[in-house]
Design a protein that fits this description.
alpha/beta; inorganic pyrophosphatase (n-terminal core); Diaminopimelate Epimerase, Chain A, domain 1; 2 domains; six-stranded parallel β-sheet; six-stranded mixed β-sheet; about 20% strand
């Protein structure tokens, strides 16, 4: 096998040794996207090589067509947190994938979170969490880390695993145009010859539903532009994953270098932020803009946040103007609404 190893490889054998003889759950972040699903599936199948059975679990909905297609295409079985909580004990092991305990986007379960594998930076909310195994790397996608495990162990993933991992990496890096590092490219070189081309083509085609067009239309109708900054409110129910996709779409405008999209959900307002400016960190921006009324965080180029329903009254009658002003202030731009 071609030598794909790199200096950031970790000793994944330590995780395998820790898991042997225990009941294992692989828990993704809530409302899992293709990268979370592909990473969990890839890790589950790797564990099987060492006679370790693992159950994949999550909270929230599988709310994007591309994610649902992955489950059907590869026969991936994922169980809701409600389904596993009743049988899980405090002695069972949980591996957090594409998230970290107390990150705000993963539900607390009865089991013991013994490991975290993630490509999001650790924040003050979860900096003190202790794991028996921790692999946090700031790379383009969590699937890149799981791919590196196959490389480190000298294993060849099945065509389905390779396809799921590479598809998740493509989605999170916006087809290798966002947040890409050498490890992501290394993962592509390793996975691409192994994928099922027909299945990859099917995943990348026909992923837009009619309600997606309505979300684009609402965002376009409500967009406000202040210099390089664009902000819009999707004024209709919209899945979390779709909010992020619309944020990418708004960022594709020539005039826009920082994009903020938000939508009202039953539990409050959900935000997605994108930045292609080196001097503006998306994670820091949303944290500052929502300070005191909500919270959020993420990478330098992309982040997410939320204002819970019980804080919406604090925004007053002119909610959209208040939100826009907060982001304008956090960006240090002149003027406002």
């Amino acid at each position: 096998m071609e030598d794909f190893k790199n200096d950031s490889s970790v000793k994944v054998r330590e995780l395998i040794d820790i898991c042997k003889g225990h009941k294992i759950y692989i828990q993704t972040h809530n409302i899992p996207d293709p990268d979370a699903i592909g990473s969990a599936y890839g890790l589950q199948q790797l564990m099987k090589v060492y006679d370790i059975e693992a159950t994949i679990c999550y909270d929230g909905d599988i709310d994007k067509l591309s994610s649902s297609k992955m489950l059907d295409m590869f026969g991936i079985k994922m169980f809701s947190d409600e389904e596993v909580a009743g049988e899980m004990t405090a002695d069972d092991y949980i591996i957090c994938v594409d998230s970290q305990k107390n990150a705000g986007n993963i539900t607390d379960l009865p089991g013991d979170e013994i490991a975290a594998i993630d490509h999001h930076p650790t924040t003050s909310k979860n900096a003190d969490v202790e794991y028996r195994y921790k692999d946090i790397r700031i790379v383009g996608a969590c699937g890149t880390i799981i791919t590196d495990y196959y490389i480190d162990l000298g294993l060849k993933p099945s065509a389905d695993v390779a396809t799921a991992l590479l598809y998740g990496i493509k989605i999170d890096t916006l087809q290798f145009s966002r947040g890409v590092c050498d490890e992501d490219i290394n993962a592509f070189r390793f996975l691409n010859p192994l994928i099922d081309i027909n299945k990859m083509g099917s995943l990348e085609m026909n992923n837009i539903e009619f309600r997606d067009l309505m979300a684009y239309g609402s965002a376009i109708e409500n967009i406000k532009v202040f210099g390089y900054f664009g902000i819009s409110h999707i004024a209709l129910p919209c899945p979390d994953a779709m909010i992020a996709i619309v944020a990418d779409f708004i960022l594709s405008l020539i005039e826009i270098e920082v994009a903020v999209i938000y939508c009202e959900r039953p539990d409050g307002l959900k935000f997605s932020v994108r930045s292609e400016r080196r001097d503006i960190n998306a994670g820091e921006l949303i944290s500052e803009a929502l300070e005191g009324i909500g919270g959020g965080g993420g990478h330098a180029t992309m982040a997410a946040g939320r204002i819970h329903a019980d804080r919406l009254a604090d925004l007053g009658e002119y909610r959209d103007n208040v939100i826009t002003e907060r982001f304008i202030k956090a960006l240090g731009l002149e003027g406002g609404c």
